[in-house]
Amino acid sequence: MSPARTASRRRRALVAGACAAVGVLLSGCTGGVSAPSGSKNEINYALPANFTPNWIVPIGTPGHLNTNNSSISQVMWEPLIAYDGSSGEIGWNKDNSLATQAKFAADNKSVTITLGDRHWSDGEPVTSRDVEFWFNLVRANKKSWASYSPGKAPDVWTSFKTLDDRHFTLDFDRAYNRQWMLANELSMIRPMPQHVWDKTGDSGTVSDLDRTPAGAKKVWTYLIDAGKKISRYASDPLWKTVSGPYRLKSFATSGRVELIENEKYDGGGAAHVKQINLLSFTTVAAEENALRAGTVDYGYIRASDLGIKKSFTDLGYHVERWSGWAVTYMPYNFNNPEMGAVFRQLYARQAIQMSVDQKTLSEVLYNGTAVPTHGPVPQGQPSAFLSDEQKAEPYPFSNSRARRLLTDHGWSERDGTMVCTSPGTGQGHCGEGVEKGTEFRMRVLSQSGSTETDNMMSALQSSFEKTGIDFEIKTAPVNSVLSQTGQCEEDDPACKWQLSFFGSAGSWYFPAYPSGDALFASGGGSNFGNYSNPEVDELIDRTTTSSSSDAMLAYSKALAEDLPVIWLPEPDYQVSVIRDGLGGFAQDSLANFHPAMWAWTE
């Protein structure tokens, strides 16, 4: 989406590859030239259009959280517990995890973790101390950690107890749902090489600085500052000690990233191919040209190009849909000084949602590669988390009913745009805080680089116009959109944004357990628009503490009805075009990519 952006957890979200290598002019290329593909020692992978990698540190900070950044980082520093769908179903991937076992106490108030017999690339063992190092840094700097939501990790962990080099216990502040704790919280832990990183400067001495809050803050500052120096990634000794199947060979500020096999890797998920080249493009058209030129092994096409699928299969590729465990939406900025008061009116959000023809957008604009989203639980795959109310679409598309909602609440049309003519509260009035003369004018900052996104925004603009809502569209690269979509107060200059869209491949990819604590809980790390509903907070809390399936169903129903965001069609993560002979993996529905699993089978 990740957004990054501003804040929180795993988001979503492109290197040039082939510009002149085969005499084909590719507009929009960046990052240099790649040799024509064909080497069985390398794989050329196309990153999403208009995405430039900008982070490898295994601690996410606002503006840097994106699933692609995360995938690059995780292949070098493996998670304590890797959850993914790369085996074809979402679960614990023990081959690429540093932990081998998680044993919960009978009262669900603690867990004891067993580490595998693993080593860093410099030969030092991976120990409980490396996990404690991450724990201490995140605990002391949680408000600067993009994945932080008040009341969640690390707040839920009251103590870290080292039992020995390969065993430790985390105590919780209360009993929790085991599935949520394992898939959503423990999976965020990223053991880091304490014996190399526990210092405050390049020439500093490594010690136990992290064990005091003041020391942990200084170490954090050092690591995050080093993470901002992208041009030094490949040369900085700091980033050479890794635990994963790959290490960094090069990382260009223009977007090209080269990963090379970590020959010291001793885990279960070793690399099958020596080098991975991650290629970035400014447009899908440029990436498709690279596919035709044969300089991309694993790329993608637009959903609208499925009709010309044969033109790629004739070149020696196969085409596969990559579906995601995600929802797509535009967040409202409830604190925007111009429109925040309007967005806080449920009837207004209902009118907006009724103006979105998700069925037609999914079938026509996305060529059948998207599914409507009506609430906070992914709807592209069957699950026990989805309520009947969310499935049923509480607010079906109807411009006429949307107009009636507005006119019934004190709005009148003037020159094609609804205007509040009856301010105040109560029946027939615009609602608290909406001043007389307020025009229903919304503007969105939308992710550029996607034809589907551009077309969807145009379709929404036309539909909103029929309801009497003015809809202004501005575009920017995804990293820019995310950086400008931050939590803010009304008097904050950064609060100018009203709506934001960064979901050309899905706005939010969930962990295995699709709780919305980061997204929709008051103060949640990725609750960009400051949505707040005490009743929803209680429901979200239940999803993390109760083992009952009813908790998720009640949460699904509530947010399908209360509309914290504008729900939009959830597209496939991408329509992949993969060179024949490249296999050995399933496409992860959590939107991560896993280079170590890729293999030439022919």
TrEMBL record:
All residue ranges annotated as the Solute-binding protein family domain in the record: 97-525
Keyword terms of this UniProt record: Signal, Transport
Q: Which Gene3D superfamilies match?
A: Dipeptide-binding Protein, Domain 3 (3.10.105.10), Periplasmic binding protein-like II (3.40.190.10)
Note the SUPFAM superfamilies from the entry.
Periplasmic binding protein-like II (SSF53850)
**Location within or outside the cell:** Cell envelope
KW Cytoplasm (keyword) present: no
Signal peptide boundaries: 1-35
Q: Does the keyword Protease apply?
A: no
Q: Name one Pfam family in it.
A: SBP_bac_5
InterPro entries from the entry? Peptide/Ni-bd (IPR030678), SBP_5 (IPR039424), SBP_5_dom (IPR000914)
Q: Report the sequence similarity comment from the record.
A: Belongs to the bacterial solute-binding protein 5 family.
UniProt name for this protein:
Peptide ABC transporter substrate-binding protein
Instruction: Name its species.
Output: Streptomyces salinarius
